[in-house]
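Instructor's aside before we start: the two examples that follow are unrelated to each other. I chose them only because their records fit on one page, so don't look for a connection. First example below.
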Amino acid sequence: MDGKMSWSVGDAVDYKGFPADRTKTGGWVPAALILVIEIAERLSTMGIAVNLVTYLGGTLHLPSAESANVVSDFMGTSFLLCLLGGFLADSFLGRYLTIVIFAVIQALGTGMLSVVTRLPQLRPPPCNSSTTAKCQEADVFQMGILYLSLYLIALGTGGLKSSVSGFGTDQFDEKDEKEKSQMANFFHRFFFFISTGTLLAVTVLVYIQDEVGRSWAYGICCLSMLISIVVFLSGTRRYRYKRSTGSPIVHILQVVVAAVRKRKLQCPWPWDVAFLYEDSPEASRIQHTDQFRFLDKAAIMADGDNHQVHGGTSTDPNPWKLCSVTRIEEVKMMIRLLPVWATTIMFWTIYAQIITFSVEQATTMERSIGSFQIPAGSLTVFLVGAILITLAIYDRMIMPVLKRWKGKQGFTNLQKIGIGLTLSVIGMVAAALAEVKRLSVARRVGAAAASRGGTTLPVSVFTLIPQFFLVGAGEGFVYTGQLDFFITRSPKGMKTMSTGLFLTTLSLGFFVSSLLVSIVNSLTGGKHGNGWLADNINNGRLDCFYGLLAVLGAVNLGAFLLCAARTKPQTPQAGLQMESTGKSSSIDENNV
């Protein structure tokens, strides 16, 4: 048996379903093949998102606010669908099949988008600069075909993001010290590849879209995804596969349903907790807590809790009627994440403005460096650059200083989130000030001269750099802080679920952005093409909108600080069911 365990990985199998041989499966080569999929996904999603607003306004002639909402809804749906992808992977398909299926869907979506942007029948006629006011918007059919391609891409993105990182970590055995160290380095490379894909998207791909043609750029996205699928499939024999333990969403629903069914029963707390049902091994049990006592009723043993079978009653409890204390405590741990979860949504609402309205601002400004003109969508390179610079400074300077000064490894996850939220508020203040300057120039030279199809304003696009850099630096702190918080504060069996919960903050942030734009557009007269978010932003008051976001962000920061102050540190008892907190923090703070 000892000899067998030396070459096999206990909780993993190979592609034939036999115990995985660690000498033939897993490790860096299979993990690298998986990362290729991540590069192609980032290239496609971000290459479309950061420059889509210029296509919607310049080619399809949509109003400014509507263009921003289309992009926000597309990105929000992409992240929301991560929950669907995670559910399918955990319950039915497994991570390998989930990646293959959704990668094909994304390739189909990008290929369709390439055709949509190529055919003149699928866009309105060009706008005559002498009759700008009479530009014809895209009709219902044209927008419907565009939406179909975009949301196929969103579906593919959601499925991929839910499984790629998890399947990558499956290639390393946490019980082996060497492979556990390699897993930490995998997170380094995972984030590096995310950034690489994003950088290629906001530079090379955006340039191709503007200077060569969008259909060519989206065709490259489709081709890269198809190549990545072939590369991914080539590693099938070398991958390690983990058996599914069921969907955490189903486990949560079982606790809620069981508690509701037994809502009229008297719970024996706190003096008779021993009478509550518990079937988990002693080493993996979570200590009972008095919070959210209603859920404890799911562990009260009663008649009819076992499965009914022909000829009698099964000894196995029905999980929809009776749940263990440990399963209930796992759900309680997830509920305790919700206050911090709710107060981080606002950051991504602010982030949505950077890849929509800020890009639209850039289209009206002077973007030339000598004979080269910077594509408006490429301004987001400062967003990505700020993230990388922030993480490098944090890793190489801040962490060593804090370790020598206070003996800490770095900021806590809640401190990092707080810093990121603060930077986003300052970023919106900087954005408002930059817009005040841009509007003053527009009024001086005449807004009509810089309307759609006209000349650019004599103000440098680099005026926008502070808002890109501040929000980008904020993302570096918020993203890593959130991921660290949700992973280290969640039970071991719900790590995938907690990551999905984190990604829903991005999704809801984009949806809140879309809702906020619609409300502001309606209240300030946007229906008539005027107001803060006018169809021609030179006639609007985007500075007031940025100011509103700064105020909302400041209020949200105050709410976060209150929630953070009430959030209790992780206790050793709860840690029984969790992976090493020190290990998780090390991975997430330095590598994501």
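Example two begins here.
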Amino acid sequence: MKSKYLKNLKYDLPAGLVVFLVALPLCLGISLASGAPFFSGIIAGVIGGIVIGALSNSQLSVSGPAAGLVAIIISAISTLGTFEAFLLAVVLAGAFQVVLGFLKAGVLAYYFPSNVIKGMLSGIGIIIILKQIPHALGYDVEGFNEMTNFIKEDGSTAFGSLFSAFDHISLGATLICFIALGIIIAFESPKLKAISKLVPGGLVAVVVSVLVSELIFKSIPSLQIEQEHLVNVPVANSFNEVLGLFTFPDFSKILDSQIWIVALTITAVASIETLLCIEAVDQLDPQKRFTNNNRELVAQGIGNISSGLIGGLPITSVIVRSSANLNANAKTKVSTIFHGVLLFASVLLIPTILNKIPLSSLAAILIFTGYKLAKPSIFKEMFSNGKYQWKPFVVTVASVVIFDLLIGVGVGLAFSVYYILKGNFKNSFFYQKSEDGPIRMVLSEEVSFLNKANIKESLEAVPKNSSIIIDATNSTYIDFDVLQGIKEFVDYKSKYRNIECQLIGFDKQFSLTEVPAAAH
């Protein structure tokens, strides 16, 4: 096993460097978007790389703080009151993930409809974009870090607060955002694809933003970017000061029910996002290696426990970093672990350089990330898949944006289940009327109790003095309640209305003589 890792170092170390360059601005940007300390995003990236990278059996997946959890983090910090209380929820979420892994719950992710997952991610993308517009304009006030949904508790809307940012525009910060966004978009073009595989556009955008701010804007008073519009990572000058950078959970809140609700929410969303990402990475792996989902949940759980204990944000497997790892030709998990080591070294050795990064350049990265989560092609794809796909998708997006992520996913799931039941309700049998012959009711392969109401309604609608053929030839399963309803119709109701009944296929395996009819 060791020889495999040593043999691939020539691929994995350069790939780890590329992933580090992608992850650094994202860790800072997600901290900003979450309203959390910048150091918390770095901690999550380090733990995601070193701890989860070592424990996971996925060779290419990369974990860290995820944009998909931003809305939950903002809401949770606001609800719980302190960052220390939120960290306790992260630790508990990690413990729940470990339990889920040992209970072999990795299969649960397959039961979430893709339209709801895509709706959730698109809704998160829209929230991220809305929340980053003030930072893009240089209006860096804490109030926008609480903008988790459209309707606020006081009845006002987020858009009303958002528009106030246009009254406080910082010209220098806004120009930096446009420059950074232009670079990121340019690096997505086919002409620069080869370069972007080596040097990610987000990193180039941050470097150029720092150079423009330091070398050009500082000499122009109207464009100069003030300190409050820059990253503010703590600078440690001694070992004791390094220890002081870490924040620890407030275990005195362990009995607070809100803590447990937040923990369960993080568990659900982080686990689903991780399992979906792992599935995608396995499909893209050139060597087609298989990741054990249950082991992945345990690894993620231990990672989240570790992150929460020392002040880090919650962690998931992240498709952006994992894709960068794949594109950089990584072969084993060494690249993931190496990127975590580089993240830790950067915050210890070059914090003063990090503190020259304009917040508006990170806002540009997050705006583009939000766009990729909610880009028009996703909506177009969902609409092309039919109403049973796009209706739950649209409802999920709207609910996530208007209310919050948990309510949005719940409403989306409810709509998705409704359309599944509706389709099942309609497709339980084939019903054909004939002007000069008997009505035919051909039952489907499986007829569950969910079809009972529709079959009963259809039998009730059979006209008096007519005839009907009920065909179970193709059926392999018919629910007992459905058989009881058919027997009741054949033995009693049809005789009262002079309806002639012919049964086909029931003698094969469904004996109606053994089914007691309902009492009258």
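The chain has two domains: 8-415, 429-514.
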